[in-house]
TrEMBL record:
<dbReference type="GO" id="GO:0008757">
    <property type="term" value="F:S-adenosylmethionine-dependent methyltransferase activity"/>
</dbReference>
<dbReference type="Pfam" id="PF10294">
    <property type="entry name" value="Methyltransf_16"/>
</dbReference>
<dbReference type="InterPro" id="IPR019410">
    <property type="entry name" value="Methyltransf_16"/>
</dbReference>
<dbReference type="InterPro" id="IPR029063">
    <property type="entry name" value="SAM-dependent_MTases_sf"/>
</dbReference>
<protein>
    <recommendedName>
        <fullName>Methyltransferase-domain-containing protein</fullName>
    </recommendedName>
</protein>
<dbReference type="GO" id="GO:0005737">
    <property type="term" value="C:cytoplasm"/>
</dbReference>
Amino acid sequence: MAEADLDHVLPSYLALVPPTRIFIPSEIPFEKLHRSLLEKILLLAHANPYPPSPDYQQAFWKWAINLLEGLIANDTDLEIDERIYERYTSLMMLGHSHLASFAPPQKGYVTYVWPKDDQAVNHGGFEGYHSATLLESRALVEQGTTGLRTWGASFALAQYLLENPKEVWENTVLELGSGTGFLGIVTSVIQTEYNTHTQLWLSDVNSEVIQRCWSNLRLPCNTSSSHPSLDVLSLDWSWAMPDSPEHSQACALAQNLHPDVIIGADVVFDPSLVPPLVATIKLLLSVDAERPSDRHALIALTIRNQTTFDLFMETIRNEGLIIVEKAVNTERLLFGSNKVDVGDVRILYITLGDVEDQKTIS
């Protein structure tokens, strides 16, 4: 059996895929699995400065030890390296201390990898692969915000951008609701690959999220750390509302940013935020509207509540904006494991003017 049969284990571990969802061939020899777990995961240099959360590591190594012990059976000539047991034991002790303190879920780094091209065949040292490393919360909501983790629609939009790099490689890009920075890192990788390095703006409104985003973008392991034209800013969508006291400031900011492409993922989840979000998109699209432009927004939405999604679509149309749905093959999402389940995601291409030459893709 080829070593490649276990190539998916490392990216699954780095992306915090639940161990029970990591496929291990039933006929795998003990020696191959043991060597892979020891050399590619336990001794992985990347995991020293950027380790997954301790609770995930504990669950992973418990699962791994059970697999290895099952393969040993009654063969007394085989044994598990003591370093694997030592890692698991130290994590157990840390876990008991954490539970006793009634602390919130532990933070940890998550690393998503994706192939540079279709010829990439292994993840050893990420050779042949791009990566994005993020310090994230595993809680759905932390410190009153959902922005401290990466959500499913971000993976779908990232896949779309990788398949359509012209969207961002020579354009000034502004992301709305950037969260921990995953899409920003993917965009910076595309711009770096094509050696364009056009302006890339990331934005959010929560100060903790902005700080986390900036820290992730500047991690030395991320391509974004060397991007020469990348900035993070605070952007309050409510300022774009026509009756907002800060509307004039929002207009000035839109003129200053002057984005060619606006991107955003999982930004429609609260009905009360729909009007200010749409107002922000329209304002950004309206910069120099009298001049010919292909300025547009690409918004990826996971439909969790049909009523909220319908409200967004209705508000967009009431503002005179044009919507074209774009297709993305979610079966090909390979950000860290065999498949990322993103749910029912729609990618919407939004413009101000007439788009008769566009075709809705179902």
